[in-house]
């Protein structure tokens, strides 16, 4: 019979895969693009909003600078894409920025990059899901009223889909992602053709609005700072670009080549969409402000500002058209799916960190469906905590965003510079040297740009919430170093030495007795078979009447082992036994004490709540006593013998039925007297 937890697991996750089927879960380029690109593409969907609303602080005239800011963002994206194409060829194991920084800058820098990426992945899920719920809530009021609950459900659904394995989740996300690319690129091309080829005068819904500048008298320095802030906000379009370098092991062979090609496709599509949307926004005189209530002067009553994507869709396809609703639908959907990139990148990075002993080893192993299940679940829990803490408000979560990804960008490219410098010292081929020097120049330019963006982001967003992301990074950084220190200390303690282990002088056996029944008699028989130097049976006196009954039964059955009664005036079980074991061993430190604990083996989960609780407490406490060995002596009850373990473990067909049980040969029939619940068995 399948347990309830196993049944639920099979329904949500599916049947387990054999380890030799790992090759079948790897991704071809057509599936890898939507799996790893949804985060970057969703960032492009709201990056134009961030550029325009930041420029609106200086008034509508500042929109003239939006194409130049976008061009600068595109240059950074081209540089980052070019750099990461080199990363995936040089470091194809999936470590990405972490591996580059660790190998070239040192372990501490690698841990710093890893902590930044882990925080960024958590925020990616929280921001993307919250944004998707916000877009959906503008159409469906019920979602807006219950956005936190809907966001949590969305995270759970994404978790279940990714627990089923990469290929299945990739197929599920491929159609919506490709639909978003086709619809948005189609909208941009249609609008540009209508404006620049057909000469039509398209006007965005917000084109006639009068915008009041929040800061109308900016100095030259302040305006330059505003442009830098706009540039840093637009660089939100770069979030997610690094995911492919962290997910190279998920690609089909040749892994590096396929990952580099996918990265090039991602960068090309993202740049086309970002530049196209900004150019079309300028051509249609679209306006988007930070605070509509104060910046829009004399607007229509009850004016609600629509996103840049929605305004462009309405301008190109017309208000109320089916294609306008398609634009809104695919945009909202891609925001939900953007979280999938984190669900593919975080577990792989967590597995690498666990292998390097910076995270618990449980994150290194694959689950039933050959996905890193523990990492997926951990990411989901962290994202749900962020969603609840910030009430699924994108405006609050977005301030924490971007910091982590640009920390990893900057340190990664600094590491690549050292990588090329090291290779150039030994490389003598002129062609190869020219290639390396060109690559180093690209990385140097990229490090300068991403470093500048990081500084601007820290200055402009620190008090708005970026400090929370920095604090999380520091906490994770310190935690990973502490975990590594613990694993190193344990490894050093367990390292074998040249000295031969000293055999114990004597072995003292102690059998715990709660009642004279078959489990106790089996434990005594097994203890006698080990040939100990001394053998003692111990029972704890918590009730005089029960203790006398045990002594009478012990004498009546003529058990050939001395029964020792330990008094417990405060009705404790664990402490008197621990004290007795200590007293046995106190006389000779080289002696060992073996404690035999009779235990029931039950077949139903709820039966575990009714048995073995005292035994668990005693065993847990004895584990901390040096020179004490604990041996469990199981007694299988009927429910455990009827258990179909094959089906329980694998969820497969029922095993053949067992034959009739024979009576155990190591003891007479059990007494019908009730068992004491305080007993260790």
Structure commentary:
This protein has two domains: 24-173 and 213-262 and 339-487, Up-down Bundle (Amino acid/polyamine transporter I); 507-650, Rossmann fold (3-Layer(aba) Sandwich). Helix 21 (544-556) links the parallel strand 4 and strand 5. The chain has helices at 4-13, 29-55, 66-90, 97-105, 107-137, 141-145, 147-163, 166-197, 220-234, 243-246, 255-283, 292-295, 308-317, 322-337, 339-355, 373-389, 394-397, 403-424, 430-494, 518-529, 544-556, 574-586, 613-622, 638-641, 645-650; strands at 210-211, 296-297, 507-512, 534-541, 562-567, 592-601, 628-636. It is built from 25 helices and seven strands. The strands form two sheets. It has a five-stranded parallel sheet, sandwiched between helices. It has a two-stranded antiparallel sheet with strand order 1-2. With 681 residues, it is an alpha/beta fold.
Backbone shape: elongated
Largest sheet: 5 strands, parallel
The first-to-last residue Cα distance is 26 Å
What is the share of helical residues? 55-70%
Query: Which architecture of the largest domain per CATH?
Result: Up-down Bundle
Query: What is the top-level CATH class of the largest domain?
Result: Mainly Alpha
Mean pLDDT: 78
Query: How many separate domains make up the residues?
Result: 2
Based on DSSP secondary structure assignment, what is the total number of beta strands? 7
Radius of gyration: 33 Å
Low-confidence stretches: 16-24, 645-681
Order of strands in the sheet with most strands: 5-4-3-6-7
Residues in β-strands, percent: 5-15%
Given the structure, what is the number of helices? 25
CATH topology of the largest domain: Amino acid/polyamine transporter I
Which structural category fits the helices and strands? alpha/beta
């Amino acid at each position: 019979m399948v347990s309830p937890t196993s049944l639920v697991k099979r329904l949500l996750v599916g049947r387990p895969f054999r380890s030799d089927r790992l090759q079948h879960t790897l991704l071809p380029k057509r599936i890898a693009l939507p799996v790893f690109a949804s985060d970057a593409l969703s960032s492009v969907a709201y990056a134009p909003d961030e550029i325009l609303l930041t420029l609106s602080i200086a008034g509508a005239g500042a929109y003239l600078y939006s194409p130049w800011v976008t061009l600068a963002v595109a240059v950074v994206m081209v540089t980052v894409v070019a750099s990461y194409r080199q990363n995936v060829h040089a470091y194809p194991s999936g470590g990405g920025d972490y591996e580059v920084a660790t190998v070239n800058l040192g372990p501490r820098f690698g841990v710093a990059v890893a902590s930044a990426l882990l925080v960024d992945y958590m925020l990616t899920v929280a921001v993307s899901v919250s944004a998707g719920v916000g877009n959906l809530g503008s159409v469906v009021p019920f979602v807006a009223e219950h956005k936190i609950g809907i966001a949590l459900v969305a995270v759970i659904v994404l978790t279940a889909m990714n627990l089923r394995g990469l290929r299945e989740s990739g197929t599920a996300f491929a159609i919506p992602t490709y639909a978003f690319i086709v619809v948005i690129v189609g909208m941009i091309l249609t609008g540009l053709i209508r404006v620049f080829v057909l000469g039509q005068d398209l006007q965005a819904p917000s084109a006639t609005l009068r915008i009041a500048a929040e800061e109308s008298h900016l100095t030259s320095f302040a305006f330059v700072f505003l442009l830098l802030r706009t540039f840093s906000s637009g660089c939100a379009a770069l979030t997610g670009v690094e995911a492919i370098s962290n997910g190279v092991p998920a690609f089909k062979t040749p892994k590096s080549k396929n990952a580099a090609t996918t990265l090039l496709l991602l960068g090309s599509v993202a740049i086309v969409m970002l530049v196209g949307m900004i150019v079309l926004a300028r051509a249609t005189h679209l306006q988007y402000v930070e605070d509509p209530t104060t910046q829009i002067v004399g607007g229509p009553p009850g004016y609600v500002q629509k996103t840049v994507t929605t305004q462009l869709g309405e301008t190109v396809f017309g208000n109320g058209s089916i294609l306008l609703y398609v634009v809104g639908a695919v945009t909202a959907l891609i925001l939900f799916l953007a979280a999938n990139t984190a669900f593919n990148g975080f577990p792989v990075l967590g597995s690498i960190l666990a292998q390097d002993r910076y995270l618990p080893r449980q994150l290194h192993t694959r689950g039933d469906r050959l996905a890193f299940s523990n990492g997926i679940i951990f990411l989901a829990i962290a994202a749900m905590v962020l969603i609840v803490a910030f009430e699924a408000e994108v405006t609050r979560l977005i301030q924490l965003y971007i910091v982590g990804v640009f920390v990893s960008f900057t340190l990664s490219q600094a590491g690549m510079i050292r990588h090329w410098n090291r290779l150039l010292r030994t490389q003598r081929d002129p062609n190869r040297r020219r290639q390396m020097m060109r690559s180093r120049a690209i990385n140097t330019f990229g490090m300068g740009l991403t470093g500048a963006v990081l500084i601007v982001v820290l200055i402009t967003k620190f008090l708005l919430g970026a400090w929370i992301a920095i604090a999380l990074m520091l906490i994770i950084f310190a935690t990973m170093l502490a975990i590594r220190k613990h694993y190193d200390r344990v490894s050093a303690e367990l390292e074998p030495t040249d000295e031969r282990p000293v055999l114990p002088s004597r072995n003292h056996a102690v059998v715990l007795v709660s009642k004279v029944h078959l489990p106790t008699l089996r434990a005594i028989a097994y203890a006698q078979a080990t040939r100990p130097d001394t053998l003692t049976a111990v029972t704890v006196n918590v009730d005089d009447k029960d203790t006398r009954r045990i002594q009478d039964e012990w004498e009546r059955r003529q058990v050939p082992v001395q029964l020792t009664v330990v008094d417990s005036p405060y009705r404790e079980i664990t402490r008197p036994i621990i004290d007795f074991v200590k007293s046995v061993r106190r006389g000779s430190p080289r002696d060992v004490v073996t404690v035999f604990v009779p235990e029931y083996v039950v077949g139903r989960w709820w039966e575990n709540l009714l048995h073995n609780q005292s035994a668990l407490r005693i065993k847990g406490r004895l584990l901390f006593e040096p020179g004490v060995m604990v041996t469990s002596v199981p007694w299988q009850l009927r429910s455990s013998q009827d258990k179909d373990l094959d089906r329980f473990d694998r969820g497969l067909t029922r095993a053949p039925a067992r034959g009739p049980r024979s009576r155990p040969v190591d003891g007479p029939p059990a007494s019908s007297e009730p068992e004491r619940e305080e007993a260790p068995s």
